[in-house]
Amino acid sequence: MRILVVDDNTELAENVAELLEDEGHEVLVAGSGPDALRMVRDTPSCVDAALVDVRMEGMDGVELVELLCQSCPRTIYVLMTAFSRDERLERARALGVTEILSKPFAPDALLHALHAA
Fold first, then answer.
1. CA atoms within 13 A on the CB side of 9
2. Are β-strands 2-6 and 49-53 bridged in parallel, bridged antiparallel, or unpaired?
3. What secondary structure letter does DSSP report for 73?
4. Burial 65-86 (b: 16+ CB within 10 A, else e)
5. Which CATH number do you get for residue 58?
6. pLDDT, tens digit, 9 for 90 and up, residues 28-73
7. pTM higher than the cut 0.90
8. Which domain holds residue 76?
9. In what helix (H) or strand (E) does residue 61 lie, and over which residues does it extend?
10. Which end of the chain is more exposed for a tag (fewer CB within 10 A), N or C?
11. Domains in the chain: how many in total?
């Protein structure tokens, strides 16, 4: 799978990318919503999955998923958040997000969420 990881926490994003690469996936990492949009726009085809942090400066993760869904509706979207009672999660579910990972999460939970989505 080709997976986009979007998180403004660089260390977390790199750790997630390393885990996914160890599992044989191709991983793209972006530190913000605008960076992720540029990255997706500049690649020849959509990513298979996107792991997106909900709370980021500027554009939040749900806004990003909404924009990405317009050009990549078949992409699997998994949200990551430390805030389980975030009102944005309902909007994300309406967009088709079925998996939401609570931070911190174990590697197995991440892999399970990707396969369950």
1. 15
2. parallel
3. T
4. bbbbbeebeebbbbbbbeeeeb
5. 3.40.50.2300
6. 999 999 999 999 999 889 999 999 999 999 999 999 999 999 999 9
7. yes
8. 2-116
9. helix 61-71
10. N
11. 1
